[in-house]
Automatic annotation (TrEMBL):
This is NADPH oxidase. GO terms for molecular function: calcium ion binding; superoxide-generating NAD(P)H oxidase activity. Residues 38-73, 74-109, 118-153 form the EF-hand domain. InterPro entries: EF-hand-dom_pair, EF_Hand_1_Ca_BS, EF_hand_dom, FAD-bd_8, FAD-bd_FR_type, Fe_red_NAD-bd_6, FNR_nucleotide-bd, RBOH/FRE. The keyword Hydrolase does not apply. Keywords: Calcium, FAD, Flavoprotein, Membrane, Metal-binding, NADP, Oxidoreductase, Transmembrane, Transmembrane helix. GO terms for cellular component: NADPH oxidase complex. Residues 385-521 form the FAD-binding FR-type domain. The chain crosses the membrane at residues 193-211, 231-250, 270-291, 311-335, 347-367. GO terms for biological process: defense response; superoxide anion generation. Pfam families: EF-hand_7, FAD_binding_8, NAD_binding_6.
């Protein structure tokens, strides 16, 4: 018995004892609760098969006896149990209606919705393939023969019994060596680690130099001055790391190969926490120093801290007062940096810099040049954003509350695949700017696409604004504008058919950008793996479209036959030899708003029963058979077969590694929790990992 089986039996026994009454038996409803089986069909079938004496209740002995078969039984024993689950009437064979009932229950438990006609197609595809003698019923031998044509399914019959009834997964924390001490971690993060070492050394140098320069003032005064000098540097450097336009420009130069520009947000956070630490030590050292001074002068500690009478500071003795305010503001900004008030608390930076100029006599020397660049960036951003009003000319409301905006693209707007921009729509919120990834390709010259998931106040207002029917109080030029937009856009490929969720419009908006992201590195990769979770597909939508546009430009067709080939696909412009696209979604509807017909795609639906789940075996076989017959997936309508459950990253990356298509770069956009898992696997295989922040 495997460790997994042992843990599972302990879990089942504990569940049984918790729910069973004084008679030590459970009925059907209690059985559903004990094993957390969602679909009543499977609960009833399992209950019937486990209830060996037909008493309409199951004792612990009956349950463990049945489960023992699943653990110690042979492949044939397990297959017979599966056959009995499908043989609803106990006739010894499975007819089409029984098979349809099983598949319908599988679809419900997997949260998949298909038309009745498609369910009939699935049933017939599996039934006709399994019914070898065309007798109108599937026997045990025929089912076994059909399963043998699916090696993965046969393999699952020999796996742990815990995968047959699928109890809730229990997180296991295996003790391993810290990843930060592994060789692969240091290799894959060499630029970041080298940068952090240089950063730490520079702070140490500034600290020691300032301390030595003020050694006549005593230990506390030396520490305060050392921290103050480090704060001069860090309070300026934290701004440099967020100069988006400068960083976007640097990403197109050789500097990107030396400095960790793609991790500027992480470095910004590290510098922010460093500033907090230095301010706390700086303030504490000054307070201790003020206590000593109060014993030598006629001023109290509170006078030193909260008044200008002692005359501390280069601007009318305001150093202590501004220092107290700065300490409060910096603490507020750091504490609120991970909450919903992040934006408003971070607006304090204007006050922080202003107070620092008053507080410290030398800060302006550090701040002058970066501050001028910062102001220039802001002025240019506002100028470009308001230089000419843009208009949203088309809106499509997609499943999963995704709003697809089509914006008339200005001539001067150039961007790279995966870039993002800030958008302001006065009709939604006059002063709010929000960042979104551009989902259209740069080669699409007429329009910009944005796909915006409704996940917050502004995005929900946007979705509701366009969901409301158009009112009659519109401009007199509404019809002319709408007709002009329609005629112009009819020439381009639109992602959905016109309907109640699709409208043409003429709504003013402003954009600021574009700004670069780590995905700019994709065309310098040889083998790229793109992983998007949910709405995290948007940067890859742009990239995939751009790849196909470049591919089509190089595609050659023979004038005498249908043969076609691609010339010079590997050049200085694009080194890609292979692209794998992995898209992970919770449910079926999330796939419906993105349609693609190119590259090698791997799509996973996490709500679907995985292939290891006994209840899903018939459904997965039927979906595979129908996909081969129709040459498209029954769930999404795409050519790529949607995989159930979550990816097994070790197997996915092992396959990628074995393909030997060149150096592998993995680009990810989605939840931070999944990013940690994928990054750890990338380090194990020596892949370069890049994480999108939008």
């Amino acid at each position: 018995m495997s460790d997994e089986d042992t843990r599972w039996l302990e879990w089942v026994t504990k569940q049984f004892e918790t729910i069973a009454g004084e008679d030590k038996e459970i009925d059907l409803e209690e059985f559903k609760t004990a094993l957390k089986v969602k679909e009543s069909f499977f609960a009833e079938r399992f209950f019937t098969l486990f209830d060996s004496d037909g008493s309409a209740s199951i004792s612990l002995d009956e349950l463990l006896e049945a489960l023992n078969l699943l653990i110690h039984g042979s492949e044939t024993d397990k297959l017979k149990f599966l056959f009995q689950v499908y043989d609803v009437d106990g006739s010894g064979s499975i007819d089409p209606d029984e098979l349809r009932t099983v598949l319908k229950s599988c679809l419900r438990e997997s949260a998949i919705s298909l038309p009745e006609e498609k369910l009939d197609d699935l049933t017939l595809a599996l039934f006709e393939s399994a019914d070898k003698d065309n007798s109108g019923a599937i026997t045990f031998e025929e089912l076994k023969a059909e399963l043998e044509e699916f090696p993965e399914v046969m393999e699952n019959l020999t796996i742990s019994a815990a995968n047959w009834l699928k109890p809730p997964e229990v997180e296991e924390r295996r003790r391993q060596a810290p990843r930060y001490l592994t060789r692969t971690y240091w290799q894959n993060n060499s630029r970041k680690l080298l940068f952090l070492c240089l950063y730490a050394c520079l702070n140490l140098l500034l600290f020691v130099t300032a301390m030595l320069h003020h050694r006549q003032g005593g230990a506390c005064f030396m520490v305060a001055k050392g921290c103050g000098q480090c704060l001069n540097f860090n309070c300026t450097f934290v701004m440099v790391l967020m100069l988006r336009r400068c960083l976007t420009w640097l990403r197109a130069t050789w500097v990107v190969r030396v400095l960790p520009l793609d991790q500027n947000i992480l470095l910004h956070q590290i510098v922010g926490y460093t500033i907090l630490c230095f301010t706390l030590v700086h303030t504490t050292a000054h307070v201790v120093n003020f206590v000593k001074l109060s014993q030598l002068t006629g001023f109290t500690v509170w006078e030193y801290l909260l008044t200008t009478r002692p005359g501390v500071g280069w601007v009318r003795g305001t150093a202590s007062l501004t220092g107290v305010v700065l300490q409060l503001l910096i603490c507020l900004m750091v504490l609120c940096s991970s909450t919903f008030v992040f934006y408003w608390s971070h607006l304090c930076y204007m006050w922080v810099w202003s107070l620092l100029v008053v507080h410290c006599a030398n800060f302006w020397k550090w701040f002058l040049v970066p501050g001028m660049v910062f102001v220039l960036e802001k002025v240019l951003g506002l100028a470009f954003a308001h230089m000419g009003s843009l208009y949203i000319v088309e809106v499509i409301l997609l499943p999963s509350k995704v709003t697809h905006l089509v914006i008339k693209r200005p001539q001067f707007f150039t961007f790279k695949p995966g870039d993002y921009l800030y958008i302001n729509i006065p009709d939604i919120a006059k002063y709010e700017w929000h960042p979104f990834t551009i989902s259209s390709a740069p080669e699409q010259s007429d329009t910009l696409w944005l796909h915006i998931r409704s996940m917050g106040q502004w995005t929900n207002r946007l979705y509701e604004f366009f969901r409301q029917p158009e009112t009659g109080a519109v401009s007199p030029k509404r019809l002319a504008t709408s007709l002009r937009n329609k005629r112009q856009l009819i020439k381009t490929q639109t992602p959905a058919k016109l309907g109640e969720n699709h409208r043409f419009c003429n709504i003013k908006c402003y954009v600021d950008g574009p700004y670069g992201t780590p995905t700019r590195q994709i065309f310098a990769s040889e083998h790229a793996v793109l992983i998007g979770a949910g709405i995290g597909i948007t940067p890859f939508a742009s990239i995939l479209q751009s790849i196909m546009s470049r591919y089509r430009r190089r595609k050659q067709n023979c004038p005498n036959c249908s043969y076609s080939w691609c010339e010079n696909i590997i050049d200085s412009d694009m080194k890609l030899r292979k692209v794998d696209f992995i898209w992970i979604n919770r449910d079926q509807k999330s796939f419906e708003w993105f349609v693609s017909r190119f590259l090698e795609m791997h799509m996973y639906m996490t709500s679907a029963l995985s292939k290891n789940d006994m209840k899903a075996i018939g459904l997965q076989m039927a979906l595979d058979l129908l996909a081969k017959k129709d040459k498209r997936d029954s769930i999404t309508g795409l050519r790529t077969r949607t995989q159930p459950g979550r990816p097994e990253w070790a197997k996915v990356f092992q396959k990628v590694s074995e393909e030997n298509k060149g150096k592998v770069h993995v680009f990810y956009c989605g939840s931070p929790a999944l990013a940690k898992t994928i990054k750890a696997q990338c380090e194990n295989f020596g892949f370069h990992f890049y994480k999108e922040n939008f």
